[in-house]
Design goal:
alpha+beta, six-stranded mixed sheet, 13 helices, elongated
């Protein structure tokens, strides 16, 4: 049974998507965002993804908004995307229109070349999680082409496991009670850990930083440190020294998990980084005797 927040949103999304699907030049239409993923809450707006073979005209865009029974708030466009922002009784709905060639370029960029390319990953994540309304055969073909590649898993692990800043500075910032600087390091470290988990679990980033709707993303990942989502929240609420200890424990568990699941992946550079952390000096260093003394 759909939640109250999701039920009416999905019904309204179907109406808007049908208005775009009625355009014969729109070859694929999907209900995307949190409504498409089935996790919408009272703050969620609507996102509709539309694909054309050639750029949509202004008239086509305005006609689709009118068919949806919406009031057009804004038309926007850049080199790759056409976006409409509309209002239905004050409730905002956003659409993103792309060319078929653009999405297929994203697939090549990520799958053929193993590029991290967060914006391309977002489109591929939406492709898998969104609900198709039109162009089901084309969408199925795209999904088959966009199977998560080994090269991207490697690249996400390498990017995510760079915890050098944490090992160099977290303990000293905690000891100084330098809270804002420490929080910045902890958030960056948490994001890197999450990126590594996306790579390990072969999941595309649903947002460019991978942090939005994180509990739902982690819930779908079979491979992760124990109680990962809860512990990441605790890191942000704990006293400084405890926060650093918990983050270090999460990193250690992540490395152990990768060692077990990916024995082919070289973890030595990342283990060495932990061993090369900055150390305190409570006494002066021994001074070398001057040459010739």
């Amino acid at each position: 049974m759909l939640s109250d927040a999701l039920g009416w949103r999905r019904e309204l999304a179907g109406r808007v998507a049908a208005a775009y699907a009625a355009d014969p030049n729109a070859v694929a239409v999907l209900i995307a965002g949190s409504v498409g993923r089935g996790c919408a809450d009272r703050w969620s707006d609507l996102e509709i993804d539309v694909y054309y073979h050639r750029p949509p005209t202004r008239a086509e865009r305005e006609a689709a908004v009118a068919r949806a029974g919406a009031h057009l708030l804004e038309l926007d466009a850049d080199d790759e995307e056409w976006a409409e922002l509309m209002s239905i009784g004050g409730y905002e709905v956003a659409t993103s229109t792309f060319l078929v060639a653009t999405l297929e370029g994203y697939i090549r960029q990520v799958v053929a070349h193993g590029a991290i390319a967060p914006l391309a990953q977002v489109r591929l994540a939406a492709l898998f999680s969104a609900q198709p309304v039109k162009g089901q055969a084309l969408i199925a073909a795209w999904r088959a082409q966009a199977a998560y590649p080994d090269a991207l898993s490697e690249a996400m692990l390498r990017a995510g496991l760079d915890f050098g800043r944490f090992w160099r500075s977290a303990v000293l910032l905690a000891e100084r009670d330098d809270r804002l600087a420490l929080m910045q390091v902890l958030v960056e470290t948490g994001q890197r850990l999450v990126w590594a988990l996306f790579g390990l679990n072969r999941c595309y980033l649903p947002t460019p930083d991978g942090l939005k709707w994180l509990d739902q993303a982690l819930a779908a990942m079979p491979l992760q440190p124990r109680d990962c989502a809860m512990r990441l929240r605790q890191v942000l609420a704990a006293p400084p020294a405890a926060a650093v200890r918990e983050m270090a424990a999460l990193i250690d568990e992540l490395l152990a998990l990768i060692a077990a699941q990916r024995p082919d992946f070289d973890l030595q550079p990342y283990r060495r980084a932990a061993e090369e952390r900055r150390r305190p000096w409570d006494a002066p260093p021994a001074l070398a005797q001057p040459a010739g003394s």
